[in-house]
From TrEMBL:
Residues 586-971 form the Beta-lactamase-related domain. Residues 48-360 form the Glycoside hydrolase family 3 N-terminal domain. This is beta-N-acetylhexosaminidase. It catalyses: Hydrolysis of terminal non-reducing N-acetyl-D-hexosamine residues in N-acetyl-beta-D-hexosaminides. Belongs to the glycosyl hydrolase 3 family. GO terms for molecular function: beta-N-acetylhexosaminidase activity. Keywords: Glycosidase, Hydrolase, Signal. Residues 1-19 form the signal peptide.
Length: 994
């Protein structure tokens, strides 16, 4: 009786183990419906169709006659049960799949060898990271999300099986075939990552296949070309190689691929691949570990699967216990060999029929009972979804790993005190890494290639001597460390970024030990390069941990964390914004371009410290010879007030150089004996001082005896041939006073107005006199005036005892890394980088390119309180983020929180204006400068040349629009009449409130 109880207990235990390891997809299906479908298919199948289910062939996804004839032969003659495509094009593969499925009487399983998604095999699809990079990610939920997205793309392609995850524990640094395909060297971590990936795949109905059982990680040979051996005892195999597979099986996933490996501890027969071993496939995998899913061989055409000439590999693989024969070298011959083995009794017919039924069951599970052709229209767009783009970016961001960070050099700080160079080893100047570095500061770029001569290399290192920080990107494993690099690391602050397999770092050990910081980016993809650059400057927080050990340098698990300190570049989904709704911006811009409201523009949107939209459109002018890009520099016009002058005012306020109730005459004594003597600073900032909107200072430089009649006319005529604005024409036959204007630079004439046009330095006295004599309107009433800010600039310069442009550069722009932002940009930049504004046929009689458009600012030498600042959208965003961060940026303080709050939150009691900033009209309306969806908390400014920016503290949002709508003439007012800027702003709010 005791023996009976023991026997019953054993049966229950076995049944319980089977229940625990039966794949989840199998358990979840309606068994009655599945069995009904399987029975009906099986009963209707011919003998050949049944045997054919065991075969999954590799094929080219090409529709040429020769290829299709070969594939049709596989379908018609050996009745293949499945197919695995080589590399190709998604649409072509879809078309071939549809044709083959239509031909096959029993729908086929379509598989993907997609360890890192479709892009491993299909061009033009989202490039996700390889497994070793994923192994650096701490958040496994993100790996599951990745698995879900790969599954979604598989469904779009009519794919049912993905030969992933790779569960190999890569413990051999010389492994020639696994390497980046492995999640790492820690068995538990590999299991965690692999299970997360499988969970995502199978959660969406795609069968996962763990490989290469029992573990290909500790080999120094490639099974594609030979039979690698794994010489570990069973205890080691259980604790390392087998552990991820055990967890995969016990968690109930569907597929396992057996590897072509020789493992003496599991099979004593010399040089027998485990894929051909019944002791491994049947006894270990299926019986001992309880695996009940589909068992695939690795590709049988590989050299590691080679058997004795008298043995057929497909027959041997079936004898071992495999269910599906993947990629036999000679499918038709192998099909015949399997049939012969069945007829001769070498293969057990019942056992093979059980496999066929299992395959049919998984076809039902995969949805082939309701097969539908792939929809090829719009396929590429569906595959390359915005969510896929976000996910690829997010995985790269989370994986960046900081291995060394002496003195917390990363993120870089005090940019104004560092001369920075970027050295590219193995790639050219201007790659994605260097370009992204250039978005954060002025970077001198150099490169060394395999083809560089010794003299060229020496010249590069000589030039690097004058820089303080060297950011060295290593993009190849084919250029060894040099003595010059070691010496450079010893003298300079060297930061390494490796875009290679981590093991390669050991080749640079000498200089790594001297370097200040080391970043591991794992791959040389554009995304890896972009996020590595952002990590260096604090555009992202660094979170990754090294998944493998680098001998003599770093152990697995190494990884230092940093905080985000600067703006980063991300996909819209990162902040919950709708990419599709943001795309409306492009259609609005295109409307403006088509109607010639402006020749080109930059549009930037940032939310929560992340730039989610940064695009350039159109050209510098209507000749369309030079396209706008992110480095194009625009005249900000009146936006200079809030982006430049107001920064200086806030700094002076922070330093207690004035109070808001101070009189402007306290700082500009020339006004004390005028009706401006009692004007207070606060009213100037609110534009309610009563000062006239503008003063044409240039009239004082014109020789009034050089012409007769009026300078202006409301109609075009012979005397007034030049259009000035929409309603005014001017003459251009007058002369300038020779005592005030010179057409060459000489002593006394150093104030540059335009190209070869200089003003006498005494003209500044004329300007203050003109302001003093100007008519004063009603104080306390809103009237926008450039004169307010001209006076504020004068006050700041006197109180801070330095020119405003120098103050802004030294205190803000150079520290922010806003290196495109400056007054008089021609002193720094080449003309070709600066977007031209108007052709001035009146005063300066030339195309204005690099010279301020505003005449008042021009007659002050290009540096004025009302205008004169030039910048691009990327740099301007840094200034605005400083406001949004309440005075902090890049880990450094610039202004006090109190001052920032005061200036950005205050509002005039009598109008919409803030302290220097413009604000929306409460309730919106046509008079509001903002879109109808902008909250009342928004602050910013617009510019006459076609610019604007708005900061929204409620939504932590920045919006920048830069254009040159005045090119070629300021008479063009379509930018306003088409409401381009406000329509874009409303589109942004619709996108972020998705």
């Amino acid at each position: 009786m005791k023996k009976i109880y023991v026997f019953l207990f054993s049966c229950v235990a076995v049944l319980s183990a089977v229940a625990q390891t039966t794949p989840n997809l199998y358990r979840a299906v309606d068994k009655a419906k599945m069995n009904h479908w399987v029975d009906s298919i099986f009963d209707a199948m011919s003998y050949d169709e049944r045997v054919g289910q065991l075969f999954m062939v590799i094929a080219n996804p090409k529709s040429d006659t020769r290829n299709m004839q070969r594939l049709m032969r596989y379908v018609n003659e050996i009745k293949i049960g499945g197919i695995l495509f080589h590399k190709g094009d998604p649409v072509m593969q879809a078309e071939v799949t549809n044709r083959l499925q239509k031909t096959s009487r029993v729908p086929m399983l379509v598989s993907l060898d997609g360890e890192w998604g479709l892009s491993m095999r299909l061009s033009g699809t989202t490039r996700f990271p390889k497994n070793m990079m994923l192994g650096a990610i701490e958040d496994n939920d993100l790996i599951t999300e990745y698995g879900k997205e790969v599954a979604r793309q598989c469904k779009e392609m009519g794919i049912h099986i993905n030969f992933a995850p790779d569960m190999d524990v890569n413990s051999n640094t010389d492994n020639p075939v696994i390497g980046l395909r492995s999640f790492g060297e820690n068995p538990q971590a590999v299991a965690d990552k692999g299970l997360a990936y499988a969970r995502g795949l199978e959660g969406q109905g795609i069968l996962s296949v763990a490989k290469h059982f029992p573990g290909h990680g500790d080999t120094a040979e490639d099974s594609h070309y030979t039979l690698p051996a794994v010489h570990h005892d069973r205890a080691r195999l259980d604790s390392v190689e087998l552990l991820p597979f055990k967890r995969y099986i016990y968690d109930g996933y569907a597929g396992v691929m057996t590897g072509h490996l020789y493992v003496p501890a599991l099979d004593k027969v010399r040089n027998r691949p485990v894929s051909m071993s019944r002791a491994v496939v049947t006894d270990l995998l299926q019986k001992e570990l309880g695996f009940r899913g589909l068992c695939f061989t690795d590709a049988l055409a590989m050299k590691g699967a080679t058997t004795r000439k008298s043995d057929n590999p497909s027959v041997k693989a079936l004898l071992a216990g495999n269910d599906i024969l993947l990629a036999p070298a000679a499918p038709i011959n192998d099909f015949a060999a399997v049939k012969e083995a069945l007829e001769e009794g070498i293969l057990d017919r019942e056992e093979i029929e059980a496999k066929i039924i299992k395959i049919l069951q998984y076809k039902y599970i995969a949805g082939l009972d309701d097969y539908r052709p792939i929809e090829t229209k719009g396929l590429s767009e569906r595959l390359n979804s915005p969510h896929a783009a976000w996910l690829a970016a997010k995985l790269n961001e989370e994986a960046i790993t900081l291995l060394k960070n002496e003195g917390d050099i990363i993120p870089l700080k005090q940019l104004n005190k560092k001369r920075i160079a970027a050295l590219s080893i193995g790639d050219g100047v201007g790659n994605e890494f260097q370009k992204m570095l250039g978005r954060y500061d002025s970077i001198a770029c150099f490169s060394i290639s395999r083809n560089s001569t010794a003299a060229q290399v020496q010249n590069v290192y000589k030039k690097l001597e004058k820089y303080d920080v060297i950011i060295c990107g290593v993009h190849t494993v084919r250029i060894p460390e040099s003595l010059a690099l070691h010496q450079l690391a010893a003298k300079k602050e060297l930061i390494y970024a490796f875009f290679t397999l981590p093991y390669f770092c050991k080749e640079y050990k000498s200089s790594i030990l001297k370097a200040k910081a080391v970043i591991m980016a794992y791959e040389g993809t554009p995304l890896a390069r972009k996020y590595a650059a952002q990590a260096i400057f604090g555009g992202i927080a660094v979170k990754g941990k090294l998944p493998v050990s680098i001998p003599t340098l770093y152990t697995a698990g190494t990884g230092m964390f940093t905080e985000k300190t600067r703006l980063g570049y991300h996909e819209p989904e990162e902040v919950g914004a709708s990419p599709e709704r943001l795309d409306v911006i492009a259609s609005i811009v295109e409307d403006g371009l088509e109607q010639k409201a402006f020749p080109g523009c930059q549009v930037l949107v940032a939310k929560d410290g992340m730039i989610i939209y940064d695009k350039s459109f159109g050209y510098f002018d209507y000749d369309k010879k030079q396209a706008v890009d992110e480095n194009s520099i625009y005249d900000l016009a009146s936006s200079s007030k809030a982006a430049g002058t107001l920064l200086a005012v806030m700094k002076a306020y922070d330093d207690k150089k004035f109070t808001l109730n101070n009189k402007i005459s306290d700082f500009i004594p020339e006004l004390k004996d005028s009706d401006k003597k009692n004007l207070v600073i606060k009213d100037l900032l609110y534009h309610q001082s009563g000062l006239t909107p503008t003063i044409n200072f240039y009239l004082n430089a014109i020789d009034r005896d050089s012409y007769k009649g009026s300078l202006y006319s409301n109609v075009k005529n012979r005397a007034h041939p030049v259009r000035f604005d929409a309603r005014t024409y001017v003459r251009n036959d007058f002369s300038f006073l020779p005592g005030l204007v010179s057409f060459d630079r000489r002593p006394g004439f150093t104030t540059e107005v335009a190209h070869k046009m200089y003003l006498h330095d005494s003209f500044k006295d004329t300007i203050i006199q003109e302001i003093k004599d100007s008519r004063l309107g009603v104080r306390g009433k809103y009237k926008y005036s450039c004169i307010n800010f001209i006076l504020l600039k004068m006050m700041v310069e006197k109180q801070m005892q330095q020119p405003m442009d120098r103050l802004l550069h030294d205190t803000f722009f150079s520290r922010l890394g806003a290196w495109h932002t400056t007054y008089n940009p021609l002193h720094i930049f080449d003309t070709i980088q600066i977007v031209p504004t108007e052709y001035d046929g009146f005063i300066r009689r030339q195309l204005l390119r690099g010279y301020v458009h505003d005449e008042a600012a021009a007659f002050q030498g290009g540096v004025s309180g009302n205008a004169g600042l030039f910048s691009n959208a990327g740099d301007l965003a840094k200034v605005l983020q400083l406001y949004l961060n309440q005075g902090h940026y890049g880990g450094e303080g610039y202004l006090s929180k109190e001052t920032c709050r005061l200036f950005t939150q205050s509002k005039s009691p009598t109008c919409r204006r803030g302290l220097g900033f413009d604000k929306p009209v409460a309730g919106g309306g046509k008079t509001s400068p903002c879109g109808s969806l902008a909250p009342i908390s928004v602050y910013g400014h617009t510019g006459f040349t076609g610019t604007c920016f708005w900061v929204d503290p409620d939504n932590n949002l920045l919006y920048i629009f830069l254009s040159n709508r005045v090119n070629p003439t300021r008479a063009n007012n379509k930018l306003s009449s088409l409401n381009i800027r406000t329509r874009i702003q409303d589109a942004i709010y619709k996108a972020i409130n998705n």
